[in-house]
Amino acid sequence: MKRAAYLLLALLPLHAAAWEQPVSGYAYLPEQVQAMQDDPIENPGMFAVDEGRALFNTPGYNGKSCASCHGTDGMKLEPQSLARYPVYSAARKGPLTLQQRINDCRENRLDEFPLPYDDADLVRLETFVRHRARGAKVNVDVSGPLRPWYEAGKVLYHTRIGQLDMACTHCHDRYVDLRLRDQVLNQGHSNAFPAHRLLSGDISSLHGKFRDCYATLRALPFEVGSDEFISLEVYLNARGNGLAIETPGIRR
Length: 252
Ligand code: HEC
Ligand code: HEC
Description:
It contains eleven helices and seven strands. The chain is mainly alpha-helical.
């Protein structure tokens, strides 16, 4: 995208949020990509789901597997319950993302070393687990103790960053539906993630996508798994409450 195009965006007069109901990025995909996402045989993100499933069913250090407690292929995991993440954790005195929940189980219930945030295996496990909740409506409760994290994420989302001096809200609230080069700006929701990226040909975590949008703005990104990105995740997920989980979605 040309710098001039961004400058033009930054100069456009501000008006109120362009949308009232959340609309998934799916609606902005070309028809053939929508069809690819909908078809489990054609969807390339299903490779990551299958790899995650294999990890899920593989015994860890103590001989147990995720499946020992959560059923073969995670049949005992509740889609509606998975759709609530991030949830508040009293032990952490803060949010617990789905990925952290999985890593905690891996460490405490399989006696494995915890994996670094966004480790490839962890993202595959997350993709598999979240795929179990495909179709469930995102339902993050930020009315209670998660509220400060939601507010912190909201501030980040509205803060201008980087050499382009733009905030997330510029592209994903105000200028939604505008065409930038060959892409139409969507509302920047998280319901497709982890998602298969056509450009990289690989699965991408939500925090990976954040880093990407920071790079677009020529801004120094936060670390994956940082408090900043976790609060952005709390904010974005809650902002998309009611959207159906699409994992693995397909995006550019
Ligand atoms: C020894 C049994 C056991 C094993 C093995 C285990 N878990 Fe868990 N898991 C639990 C229990 C018990 C809970 C819920 C209690 C809690 O919140 O700590 C849970 C909670 C979860 C949740 C949250 C479910 C929800 O609805 O909130 C996920 C996701 C999960 N585990 C994934 C995994 C994955 C992935 C693995 C393998 C890496 C795994 N678990 C291994 C016992 C286990
Ligand atoms: C200059 C415009 C611009 C800004 C500012 C911007 N993004 Fe994006 N973002 C995009 C474009 C273009 C896409 C669509 C690319 C695609 O199809 O995946 C996107 C996609 C996304 C998506 C995936 C949505 C989906 O369903 O495909 C998320 C999440 C996201 N952005 C988060 C952010 C966050 C968080 C910020 C602020 C740090 C931000 N974006 C700032 C241009 C922007």
